[in-house]
């Protein structure tokens, strides 16, 4: 069911829903006893939820596809990530919590190194330090253009955010990053007539930036890619009739939540404190998206034991969540991050759904292989989780007479 | 696979197929031993079919979607219910077995109450009795329009069917029901130029009806909604090459079957008698849709034990069905109606398929949780049942060389 269809069926109810995302939850059986991280973790509280609820594994994007954090979360939120795509420039803005306005054009920039002939010798400027990046960004912030305002923000190491604000801007501009060494940066090219003005402004900016950076090898030039504008998507309120909030500490996840119209609360670090914040705001919202990052981080570190510990840490906070007496709870991840791979992966992600209208299945522990036998099946499309949550919250009307 | 694709693959064979629909079959584990209605029921004959056949659970419309009876059955018949939608006016006509002709415009009407200022005070006219409705409909039947014939039929309580028959009619007309109190009924508005003539006729009818109903408070006015024309869909014969009949007692299900070109036989009440009728007509048809209503009715009553009894009653009739030696049998529901909810629900529906070409699975009893492990999986799209039945009846040609 696509979002337009669900939108027509949404109805209101006095029910509360919590989506707890343990980032990168899914793993691979590379542990001591041939177990995955989740299987190895001692999770009595999550297991109790599974016994009362239903379980399965969801596919965030599709078979074999490894999701980035943006698509992973958009799928959980019911927005088909292959249709609702965010440009890299917008993601960069979300990542530093830059308050992108409708009409702004954002791009992801890299400091890079040019040789005397103007050929790219390092697309990442020797990965300069973030401090050095900040100094160089100060140099660039003074650049003035005729007809648009420029914003520059340090992201990390060689990475920066470039934003143009003004009338009639358009993001249909090709990347200037040649994605190769020994060639010149690409010219700024408008892909459509409507983007020509913007392309001229970007070209003017890059020219001036090149002058200012001239003496600063290895960071003596800029490459840009992923020109994009903030998308105009339905909000959670428009799509589902839900007052929704995000309780997430990392800018990226707060940003994705903002794109779908969630309020972003200033989130504390621990899961207990996040649940306490949810308790405080319980009457103000119908839907709580609560995010825990370190499960993914430890997976990316390739540290099996540390990922197990992060999962066990989440499990210990579950009683605080259930004390809120939510009508519907989903616990899952936005993708898998097996310690074995030390990066995001394509593997389906364990998911449990708990409500009083569950047709409980035989799954008794929350783990990848146990979930295969669950009522949600081993390959549930991730975008079906929101309709299922809404149904269990009695927030979807009957279709047809 | 959509219907167009299946249609191209359909081929003839000398095989007989039976689809037995136990309306509202799926339930929730609210019974004495934590069982669902179907799990609690003693169903030795259905269990025997499951042991020889394959099982699973199907999703009539999609994840989280609660189907009405129309969409639920259309899905079983292989017609994607999100694509093949029936207007409320047509459903009202089906419900009273009005013989809607191509070109007729039908609407669902409500008697309602207006105060002295012409404002709606009760959209259902105090739910007048069906007898009173019949008297009032007689008043309205005499209304004559210039250029179209009018048909009025009592549905139940405050509900009636309005049908306009004539040349060049069009159903693109907005509802006159304001869906609110304290406001006037909405004017009759044509949504397209092609519907203007029809809108004038409807407005003229409503004006005359208002005059005739003037002294009959609380039913002193009419509201109309769901203007619609009979759809022109492929028939079972066109889509599948099947001579199909419906053996169903309730007008609604007979009506939906008619929409897809089935003959509707005058059906007896008990399942044994329905199977006897099928036996009588065995040579005349290839496909028998046989419908049992009370499983749903008892679920809607919220009566767990009575729903169990209705399922057991169906089970007892199964030997009579199998004596006919059908090549393919499917037993399922059009949606779930858990006694716990006392209404239709979004939960997947147990299904079994029996033929001599089944790759039997490990499921040994017909129940929601047992079916999760079946060969059809826990979330089979409902529209895939018809292609599976056709295949098992050796009625689908090889695709490609």
From TrEMBL, chains A, B:
Tell me what this protein is called: Phosphoglycerate mutase
The protein's role, per its UniProt record: Catalyzes the interconversion of 2-phosphoglycerate and 3-phosphoglycerate.
Pathway per its UniProt entry is:
Carbohydrate degradation
Q: Which domain of life is it from?
A: Bacteria
Cite the GO molecular-function annotations of the record. Answer: metal ion binding; phosphoglycerate mutase activity
The UniProt keywords, alphabetically, are:
Glycolysis
The protein's matches in Pfam families, at most eight in alphabetical order, are given as: Metalloenzyme, PhosphMutase
Task: Note the InterPro entries from the entry.
Answer: Alkaline_phosphatase_core_sf, Metalloenzyme, Pglycerate_mutase_ApgM, Pglycerate_mutase_ApgM_sf
- The answer to keyword Transmembrane applying to this record is no
Coiled coil located at which positions? none
Q: Which CDD domains match?
A: iPGM_like (cd16011)
Reactions accelerated catalytically: (2R)-2-phosphoglycerate = (2R)-3-phosphoglycerate
A biological process term (GO) from this entry:
glycolytic process
State the organism of origin. Bradymonas sediminis
Which protein family is named in the record? Belongs to the BPG-independent phosphoglycerate mutase family. A-PGAM subfamily.
């Amino acid at each position: 069911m696509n979002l337009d269809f669900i939108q027509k069926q949404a109805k209101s109810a006095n029910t509360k829903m919590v989506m707890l995302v343990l980032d990168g939850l899914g793993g691979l059986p590379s542990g001591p006893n041939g177990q995955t991280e989740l299987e190895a973790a001692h999770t009595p509280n999550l297991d109790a939820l599974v016994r009362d609820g239903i379980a399965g594994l969801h596919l965030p994007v599709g078979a074999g596809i490894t999701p980035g954090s943006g698509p992973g979360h958009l799928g959980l939120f019911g927005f088909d990530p292959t249709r609702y795509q965010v440009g890299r420039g917008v993601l960069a803005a979300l990542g530093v919590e830059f308050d992108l306005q409708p009409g702004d054009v954002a791009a992801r920039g890299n400091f890079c190194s040019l040789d005397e002939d103007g050929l790219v010798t390092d697309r990442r400027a020797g990965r300069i330090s973030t401090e050095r990046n900040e100094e160089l960004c100060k140099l660039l912030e003074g650049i003035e253009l005729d007809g648009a305002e420029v914003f520059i923000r340090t992201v990390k190491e060689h990475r920066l955010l470039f934003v143009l604000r003004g009338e009639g801007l358009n993001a249909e501009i090709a990347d200037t990053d040649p994605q190769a060494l020994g060639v010149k940066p690409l010219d700024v090219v408008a892909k459509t007539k409507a983007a020509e003005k913007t392309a001229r402004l970007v070209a003017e900016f890059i020219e001036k930036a090149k002058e200012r950076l001239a003496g600063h090898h290895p960071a003596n030039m800029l490459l840009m890619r992923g020109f994009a504008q903030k998308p105009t998507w339905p909000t959670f309120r428009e799509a589902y009739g839900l007052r929704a909030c995000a309780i997430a500490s990392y800018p990226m996840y707060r940003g994705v939540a903002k794109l779908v119209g969630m309020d972003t609360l200033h989130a504390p670090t621990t899961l207990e404190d996040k649940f306490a914040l949810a308790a405080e705001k319980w009457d103000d919202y119908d839907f709580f998206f609560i995010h825990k990052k370190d499960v993914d981080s430890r997976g990316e570190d390739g540290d099996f034991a540390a990922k197990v510990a992060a999962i066990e840490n989440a499990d210990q906070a579950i009683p605080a969540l259930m004390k809120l007496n939510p009508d519907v709870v989903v616990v899952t991840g936005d993708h898998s991050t097996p310690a074995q791979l030390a990066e995001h992966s394509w593997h389906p992600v364990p998911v449990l759904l708990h409500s009083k209208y569950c047709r409980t299945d035989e799954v008794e522990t929350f783990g990848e292989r146990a979930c295969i036998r669950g009522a949600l099946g081993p390959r549930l499309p991730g975008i079906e989780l929101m309709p299922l949550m809404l149904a269990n919250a009695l927030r979807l009307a009957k279709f047809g007479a």
